[in-house]
Amino acid sequence: MKLQQLSVFCENKPGRLLEPVRLLARAGVDLRALTLADTEKFGILRLIVRDWQEARQLLQSAGAVVKVTEVIAVEVPDRPGGLAEVLERLDGSGINIEYMYAFPYVRGERAVLVFRFDDTDGAIRCLTAGGIRVLERTELDGF
Fold first, then answer.
1. Residue 111 vs residues 46, 62, 72: alpha-carbon distances, Å
2. Which of 141, 116, 132, 127 is nearest to 51 (CA)?
3. Domain containing 42: what range?
């Protein structure tokens, strides 16, 4: 249920995003999801890939600073209020969402979101007890 996400730190200058993405492409590493956050001086490229260990090794060998964090992917009803229903399952739990982003994919009438929580195990318990489907790593291969 937990996914390993790579966070790659990049200088916030033209062309810096291309370097890690090109490296992974040349090695045949398949990107499943990504997001990019920035500050004035640096950016954080967050990636979910099929083989995170290979990708981490490639990036680190090229001199990139890479951090591995645990995230989860959940199915969300793809309609108005779908996200609110998911978040309601966490209401009152004290679990904080550190960040989230969407997959560019819809499964039928359900979309997929990636969440980073301050208590991943607690979030999984709350969400599954509330009927929210937390995806397994193997299910991402179909995207």
1. 19, 34, 14
2. 141
3. 2-69
DSSP assigned state of 134: B
Structural domain ending residue among the three candidates 43, 69, 95: 69
Could you report the per-residue pLDDT of 113-126, keeping only the tens digit for each? 999 999 999 999 99
**CA–CA distance, 2 with 48 (Å, rounded to integer):** 11
Report which of 49, 46, 35 is spatially closest to residue 143, judged by C-alpha positions.
Answer: 49
Neighbours of 129 (CB within 10 A): 9
How much is the pLDDT for 104?
58
Phi, psi of 39 (to 5 degrees): -125, -175
**CATH code, 88:** 3.30.70.260
**Tokens describing residue 93:** 């739990």
Task: Specify whether the CB–CB gap between 32 and 48 falls below 8 A.
Answer: yes
Q: Rounded to two decimals, what is the model's pTM?
A: 0.88
